[in-house]
Amino acid sequence: MATRVMKMSALYAPTLKEDPAEAELASHKLMLRAGLIRKVASGLYSYLPLAWRSIRKIEDICRDEMDAIGAQEMLAPILTPAELWEESGRIGAYGPELMRLEDRHDRTFCLGPTHEETFTDLVRNELKSYKQLPVTLYQIQDKFRDELRPRFGLMRGREFIMKDAYSFSATQESLQEVYEDMKGAYARYCERCGLKALPVAADSGEIGGDSSIEYMALADAGEASLVWCDCGFAADDEAASTTVAVSEGPGDGTLQKVSTPGLGTIEAVAEFFGFPENGTRKSLALIDGEGNPVVAIVPGDHELNEIKAAKLFGDYHLMTEEELDETGLHKGFIGPVGLPAGVRLVCDSSLQASKSWTCGANEVDYHYTGACPGRDFTVDAWEDLVTVKEGDPCPHCGAPLKGGRGIECGQVFQIGPDKYAAKMGATFADENGREQPFYMGCYGIGISRTLAAIVEQHHDDHGIVWPVSVAPYEVSVIALDKKGEAFDRAAAIAEELAAAGIEVVFDDRAERPGVKFADNDLMGFPYQLIVGKRGLANGTVELKCRATGEREDVPADDVVERLA
Ligand code: ATP
Ligand code: MG
Ligand code: MG
Ligand code: MG
């Protein structure tokens, strides 16, 4: 399809000669210098025409990948009524990042930082039967988070563009399938955007399942520090520094699900230890060597802790404030059961203060343990904690780990039925006509952060080096002459390219060639066609590839064919 030539003389892309003082990262500097973004206030940016063209391409790649796995695009309001956040219980838990405002009737609204509540509310009265499931809905929209430290330009804004998707399934198996599809889509999204990215298990790279994965674009500017291995193992900073550790002794380092006859049920464990809520609860807590509970997994509403708990124990119960006694310990604690040698336990870094401990949690007929009944296992000291660093042997294959930093461009979560659907009464009728809460998944991509990550990965000393797929324009035609026949020929070439459907900028400005070269390098269009009298005398123009710097004389009559 034919496109229109954009004349550089008219393009609203105010460039800066010097690096702006406020910017630290290459992406932030270059986007300001190349006239892509301008700051409105802290964490708030306008996307100027060049950035907006790239953003739209990134969005379209994202759309295409979402549509390909059967997700359906829609759009919900950015404002969300506070009542929905109360229903889910997140109004308090979300904290000051949640931007609130009141309407003229004093009703409170939140500027959506993410939309689980809105989408759960949407489907709860509409999706009625398992026969209608699964359903995945998504939107691309501005999100708002009052970040403590908005910084690095588009990297961490207070208003930013996100793709957020929500899936509703009848079973865990169905959720798992949607999740697998999403993982494929996310990997392709990163690749098509020109990003070298790693899927990193969000809590720990080591413990079996992967109920949450972050897509980390490798870049020195990233906030996360990562280790990874060619065998597929990858872990982030948090996992590497706080996930833990391992007892001395045998064991392969993986969590073991062990049949524990005689003490194999929650009921039996509860009875054994004489806990009051006999058999009624599936809890997770840590106890000391004397069997005294020392810490419960952090109470509250922290998704990651839930996921960690779920991953470790399959069956878990996240403690609420009411269930803790005045010292912060769990009243109805069930345990202890031992940890087998070699087991790794994910926990919050605050738990590292305690010395020896064992850990309890179970599911019917199994413990994730090899040492029942028991207080017979302790981790001797937190000094034994394993933090995986670059160069350490990979926990999966033993090869030396690689290390680097990453930018979180997206994240996929298996949420399950408890967190939103059950709390908000979002149910469907299963095969037996019983009402069940939806198994939910949620899946975010930072569209505007992706743009910043692309620039981090694709730039050099002269400016941005756009991958073709997301470049604001594919080609710039640079007229060396300010007027005359050669200038007219350059204009004609630009028109021919546009007619052939190639997105083209025509640098028609009355500037010296040096200025034009510098600006075109800065803006980073993948191909430059340099048109001047001297070349035209031989019937050629110069084609420069921005990424490689290679230059080639191409017959002026062949450029459309070459670039199409
Ligand atoms: P971060 O760890 O960087 O704070 P997050 O884990 O809080 O991000 P999610 O809730 O997973 O973010 O949101 C989905 C995606 O939205 C993230 O993977 C990221 O790409 C993007 N994102 C999150 N916060 C911001 C922000 N303040 N500015 C730009 N993009 C963001
Ligand atoms: Mg955040
Ligand atoms: Mg994060
Ligand atoms: Mg995240």
Automatic annotation (TrEMBL):
Subunit text: Homodimer.
Top-rank taxon: Bacteria
Biological process annotations from GO: prolyl-tRNA aminoacylation
Principal location class: cytoplasm
Pfam families named in the record: HGTP_anticodon, tRNA-synt_2b, tRNA_edit
Protein encoded by which gene: proS
One CC-aspect GO term: cytosol
Enzyme class: ligase
PROSITE patterns linked: AA_TRNA_LIGASE_II
GO molecular function: aminoacyl-tRNA deacylase activity; ATP binding; proline-tRNA ligase activity
Keyword hit for Transcription regulation: no
HAMAP family, A to Z: Pro_tRNA_synth_type1
Source organism per UniProt: [Collinsella] massiliensis
NCBIfam families per the UniProt record, alphabetical: PRK09194.1, proS_fam_II
Protein name: Proline--tRNA ligase
Gene3D superfamilies: Anticodon-binding domain (3.40.50.800), Bira Bifunctional Protein, Domain 2 (3.30.930.10), YbaK/aminoacyl-tRNA synthetase-associated domain (3.90.960.10)
Catalytic activity: tRNA(Pro) + L-proline + ATP = L-prolyl-tRNA(Pro) + AMP + diphosphate
Cell location: Cytoplasm
InterPro entries xref list: aa-tRNA-synt_IIb, aa-tRNA-synth_II, aa-tRNA-synth_II/BPL/LPL, Anticodon-bd, Anticodon-bd_dom_sf, Pro-tRNA-ligase_IIa, Pro-tRNA-synth_IIa_bac-type, Pro-tRNA-Synthase_IIa_type1
Primary role: Catalyzes the attachment of proline to tRNA(Pro) in a two-step reaction: proline is first activated by ATP to form Pro-AMP and then transferred to the acceptor end of tRNA(Pro). As ProRS can inadvertently accommodate and process non-cognate amino acids such as alanine and cysteine, to avoid such errors it has two additional distinct editing activities against alanine. One activity is designated as 'pretransfer' editing and involves the tRNA(Pro)-independent hydrolysis of activated Ala-AMP.
